Every structure is written in structure tokens, then in C-alpha cells.
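[step 3/7] fold_predict: job queued, chain A
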Amino acid sequence: MMGIAGSILLAVLALTLLLIAASGFKIVRPYQQGLIEVLGKFRTTVSPGLRFVVPFVQRMLTVDMREQVVDVPPQEVITKDNVVVTVDAVIYYEATDPVKLKYAVGNFILAITKLAQTNLRNVVGDLQLDEALVSREIINSKLRQILDDATDKWGTRVVRVEIQRIEPPPDVTEAMHRQMKAERGRRASVTEAEGDKRSAILQAEGVKQAAILRAEGEAEAIMRVAEADKYQKLTVAEGEGQAIERVFAAIHNGDPTDDLIAIRYLETLQGIADGQATKIFLPLDTSGLLGSVAAIGEMFKEGAGASSGSAGRDG
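[step 4/7] structure written:
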């Protein structure tokens, strides 16, 4: 019996030692860093993988090296123009030194939350309400810089800070809505007035251009009519001039047709004598014409005398 009991005891002891030894194997994830402590004192850091620590002598702590998110609860902040607004934010950070993050601060999440709330009041409190509403990028940048400098000793780096909302009181929000509506109405009125002005200018320019084109067309028509009238008058005058030159040449050169031309002149003079003629065309040299007229007159006299003499003798 004693042999069986001793065997069982040895088996239990061996199993216990095996379990204790197995508990010394630790796995460090790819996104973690391991911190090895020996009897409560930090010894070294280990990279991801399977690690073994001596039970009851060594202990391993892990630190998550991934980027983490901290939600800053909403809080009331008084702006520079004494308007109470509700502000909340989100902080993104990552560990840079696992040793500092583990041993330099007791509760990092609580510490960075309170630090963000305090500095958020300071940053927003230095701005007017209108500036705070349109300057979120400036607030994010300033707050990130402040938190990054403050948490550097804790082994972390603040990647970015995002302001989720800046909410004014309901009465201020309503007043802002009325102001925005009035501003939009003013812009609409200005735009409409500019459109009417532009339309009137375009219409006036169109009327002006049409009047100019119409005047140019009328001027061109008058010019062409005048040119046609001028051409007609020049053509008629040239024809009359050529006719006068031919008559003058015929009379001056003693052409056999002088008597006929003289007769035509006498007929013309007869027409002038009746007082109906408005234009008289005479050649410059009329000596030949007058001589022909005189000769014709003598012929008419001789013919008349002969006729009277014959009549006397017959009687």
C-alpha cells in the first residue's frame, strides 16, 4: 500500500511540476511588446513570438502597440464672447515606448481624457463663437500639439485629434439660422438685381447695334442711289456734249449737211420762241451757222421775187 501511495504522490507531483512549467510559456502577439519582470523588477522587452518565463520568479506584461482611440466626453465650454457651447472630441494615439507607457502613468486613458478636456476649454475659450464654428482644423491642430507634448513622457504619440461637434445653445442656434436665412435672401436679391442689370445692358446694346446697322444700311443705300443718279446725269451730259460737238464740227467744217443742220437750228429757235423751252444749247462758234441761215434767207427772198414777177407778166 505504501508503494502505491508513493507512486501516486510522485505522479501528482510530476504532473504539478509539468503544469507549472507549461504555465511559463507565453505568446506575444504581432502587435504587442512583452515586458519581462524578475522578482518585481523590470528586466527587458521581448518581441512577438513564443516566450518562456520562469514561474514564480519572472512575469511578463504585454503592451498593445496599435493605434488606439479615446473618446472625450461632451463638456460645456465658454467662448471668448461668453457663449456656452458643448464640445466633444476624439483622440487617436499610439504607443512609442512600452516601458514608459506601462510604468510612467497609472491610468493612461483617464489621464489623457482629463488632459484633453482641460486644454479643450483653453483652446476654445480663446475663440469667438463664429471663429470656433469655422476653425475646427485650427482647434484640432492646437489640441493635438498640446497633447502630444504632454504625453511624450508617457511613451505615446498623439496622432490626431478630431472635434466631433461644437453645439451652441438653442436660442443662439435659432438666431444663427435666422441670420443665415437673411444673408441667403440678401444674396439672392443681389444676384437677381445683377441679372436684371445685365439683361438691361444686353438689351440696350442690342438696340444700339441694330440702330447702327440700320443707319449704315440706309447710308449705303443713299450712297448707291446717288452714285446711280450721278452716273445717269454724267451719261446724259456726255451724250449731249457729243451731239453739240458734232453739230459744231459740221457747221465749222462746211459740211454739205450744213443747210440741213441750219434748218434744224431754225426749227429749234422756233421752239424756243414759243416760251416753253427750259434749256438752250448753242455752240460757241455760231458764225458758220449764221452765214448758212443768211444764205437760206436770201434763197427764200429770191424765190419769192421770182414768183411775184411771173405773176405780173401773166396779168
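[step 5/7] annotate
Residues 8-64 form one domain.
The radius of gyration is 64 Å.
exit 0
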